[in-house]
Structure prediction request, 363 residues.
Amino acid sequence: MKFIDLFAGIGGFRFGMESAGHECVAFCEIDKFARASYKAIHNTEGEIELHDITQVTDDEIRSIGHVDAICGGFPCQAFSIAGNRRGFEDTRGTLFFEIARFASILKPKYLFLENVKGLLNHDKGDTFEVILSALDELGYDVEWQVLNSKDFGVPQNRERVFIIGHLRGRSTRTIFPLSGNDKATDCKQPKIKKVGNIRKKGKSQSGDVVSIDSLAPTLCSTTTRKDPLKVAIPVLTPNRIDKRQNGRRFKEDGEPMFTLTSQDRHGIVVAGKLPGNHDQNSRVYDTDGLAPTLSTMQGGGQEPKIMQNFRIRKLTPRECWRLQGFPDWAFDKAQEVNSNSQLYKQAGNSVTVNVIAEIAKRL
Prediction:
């Protein structure tokens, strides 16, 4: 099938659609940095390139010619008059109207749309009802389902609503319900495992630190190079990785042990020290080491103390792109034309390729 890629970003929809054998004939993206990545990754030669969708004329839309599908993850804007249920008329002034305008002119067999899960209950459901009413007026029967990226082979908890519009009178089969492709994710934890927060008050979501063996939280478009997702890697002491043999990483199960030296701390590992005059009472021991000899302490802060330290690092832009299902070669091409700040933002704005691909196979 031939499709057009609206609100194209870096081409998440395109990757998924092309993996199912569909052909892109036109794309539209207003952000020049995302467009640079898109054109570096995809072969757009001979295709119609559009920028600001609100400035595309009806005649330019007609010039695209026949398409079988319109794809787009449209931004969720407030519908100032949502609730009047005037269908297509109620969507004017919103970016959803632009998709509806393309559909009204081109009349493709399918509309394939994506949005945040909150669209379903936005304004007590009135917004989504207006969207359904507009599509019904344009001649489309609609089905939708909330899908989570973690069920499609990537370790990211990302719930999004996917909407399929079927042009009435055309023979099309239903797409949903879709249960996932049963691919195993690259994590041991079925949920997000938060281990701490680096902010002073410990409440800001941007300060959350998650375990490397759990799901990543949803990537967002506000992610920057200075403040991306953070993961905690267990080490014996914060600077252990910079030390020599007695500061080496943990061994994995089944690996041979390092050669022991007289400098190795066998069993007891001192992970830190609390303020205090008595050295032994103020030591903090690692949870993987042996406990020191118990004394007849009677409280008062003299009990042995343990602590699990973590080395916190930020996810790289490449890792964020992987969480959205993009191959490394695509990231490499985008990296040649964009800064890390833009690459983080582009990952957060994208759709997950794996989910799009599974739906595209059923179109």
Summary: Residues 262-272, 293-299 have pLDDT under 50 and may be disordered. The CA atoms of residues 91 and 97 lie 5 Å apart. The first strand starts at residue 2 and ends at 6. The radius of gyration is 26 Å.
